[in-house]
Each structure stands twice: as structure tokens, then as C-alpha cells.
Design a protein that fits this description.
It comes from Parolsenella catena. The chain has three helices and nine strands; from the N terminus they run αβββαβαβββββ. The chain is an alpha+beta fold. It has one domain: Vaccinia Virus protein VP39 (Rossmann fold), CATH 3.40.50. A hairpin with a 2-residue loop joins strand 8 and strand 9. Helix 2 packs across helix 3.
Length: 158
């Protein structure tokens, strides 16, 4: 039987907090404020909230783009560390590259499932960055739009 795909376009943290426990098989995060990722969705606290609304074998998939023409994956590593504080397995898949793209695009996956694709970039204690915490973020005044002064990003907005 085919499944049902529901797409929600709303404030991510508010939606996650208001969702019922164990209600989703997969949550896809593709949230940007301009070209910058919405850092409030990349925190340890958000990862705990995501884990609550996922089914036991569910997964979080997040679109993450590198910086500095592909040479800076610090946000990817920090986001992976945040997810790794909650989920058993965190890995990334490099997306097919457009020949004209400047940055590298990754799908970051967090799950308690034991399945990990053979070609995945698996994160562990040696490859995680610094977990992002809600307290590391500065409110910009727009609900749901929180940008970071995260220490691992050199205090830059991410």
C-alpha cells in the first residue's frame, strides 16, 4: 500500500514541538535563511525533539551545504555532532554535483536504525565537530529564525 507524503511549510521548531510522539517515519530538513542554514534546527535540543516525534526506526534527513567553495564543512560536522548526541548512527551522503555548483551539497542522516549504506561518510567521535546548543544561538528577532554565534564557526552567522 502506498504511503502518504505530507509537506509542511512552517516554522520548524514550532512544528516539531507541537507534533505528537512517534508520528513520523522520516523528517526532512531543508531550511535556509537566504543561503545560510537555520541553526536552530541543528542543535542538540532540537535533535531530542526530533527523536521524540520519530517512529523507533525513523530517520532525520537534512540538506547541508558546504562553505568556502566546498573547503569548509564545519557546519556539517557540528550538525552531525548535535545529532550524534541523540541518535545511534549519523552519516552523510554527498549529493550528485552540478558541474556549475560552487559548494558541495550533503544529505545528513540521523537514525537509530542499524542500516548504513556502504558509500556513506559515517561520523564518529573522531569526525564530529562541536555540538550546537540552543544557548549558543542568538535570536535575530524573527520567530524561528535563529542564527548562531557558534564558537566552532568562528562566531560567524551560520
Amino acid at each position: 500500500m502506498p504511503g502518504v507524503l505530507r509537506v509542511y511549510d512552517c516554522d520548524g521548531r514550532h512544528f516539531i514541538k507541537s507534533s505528537q510522539e512517534n508520528s513520523y517515519d522520516c523528517v526532512v530538513l531543508d531550511a535556509f535563511s537566504g543561503s545560510r542554514p537555520v541553526a536552530s534546527l541543528a542543535t542538540v535540543e532540537c535533535a531530542f525533539e526530533l527523536r521524540k516525534i520519530l517512529a523507533p526506526s525513523g530517520a532525520v534527513l537534512a540538506n547541508v551545504v558546504s562553505a568556502e567553495e566546498g573547503s569548509d564543512i564545519s557546519f556539517l560536522r557540528d550538525f552531525a555532532a548535535s545529532l550524534g548526541a541523540v541518535f545511534s548512527n549519523v552519516y552523510a551522503e554527498l549529493c550528485e554535483q552540478d558541474e556549475f555548483a560552487v559548494e558541495d551539497n550533503y544529505i545528513l542522516v540521523a537514525t537509530d536504525s542499524s542500516y548504513i549504506p556502504d558509500d556513506a561518510l559515517v561520523f564518529d567521535a573522531d569526525t564530529f565537530g562541536t555540538p550546537v546548543r540552543d544557548g549558543d544561538l542568538k535570536l535575530t528577532g524573527t520567530p524561528g529564525d535563529i542564527n548562531a554565534g557558534h564558537p566552532a564557526s568562528g562566531g560567524k552567522l551560520i
